[in-house]
Amino acid sequence: MAYADQQMSGNKITALIIVAILHVVVGYALVSGLAYSAIQKVKEVTSAVNIEEEKPPEEPPPPPPPKDDTPPPPIVAPPPPISFNAPAPQVQTVNEAPPIPAPPAPVALPAPPAAPPPPRFTPKAAAPKGNPGNWATSNDYPSRALREEREGTTGFRVTVGTDGKVTDCQITRSSGSPDLDEATCANVRRRARFAPATDGEGNPTTGAYSNSIRWVIPKD
Fold this sequence. Notes:
Layout: H1 2-48, E1 127-128, H2 143-147, E2 152-160, E3 166-173, H3 178-191, E4 194-195, E5 197-198, E6 204-205, E7 207-215
Antiparallel strand pairs: 1-4, 2-3, 2-7, 5-6
């Protein structure tokens, strides 16, 4: 009995293992079949539905420009050319000094008169005749000046006429004594004689002569 029970137990275990294997095989087959059917269904659905890539929406075209019903502007002729030769206006500020007036235009002077022709003769001054030292001597010494022992030098200038005689006498330097000065001109008028002056034509003319007389008290 014991052997028989053990044999029966072994057979049960073997049967259980076989049944489990069959279950596994059948489950695998079922799972594989279902998976294959599902794959075929997915392929059919995929082939039937064409999935296209979604494209971005296109931007609408810009609206046409509005029609301008206003008429075109009239054609205007170009302005005449501007001349820049006109003087620029003078701008004067408040602190600026007024412009200096332009000097007057020079006045043309008349041409100088023509020079006279050169003289035919060289003009000559009046020249004394004889020795001028004899025009006044110690005998002509004024008596009062002699007593007072006054001396001095008197300068004079005479005018000589065309005849060579003295027409006028002037004292140009005083001796300090009026009587000596008066005696000088008095003796020159009386004694002085001249060769008259001549002009460029050689004719006698009025001239002048200057000199001086020294009054010295004579010694015995």
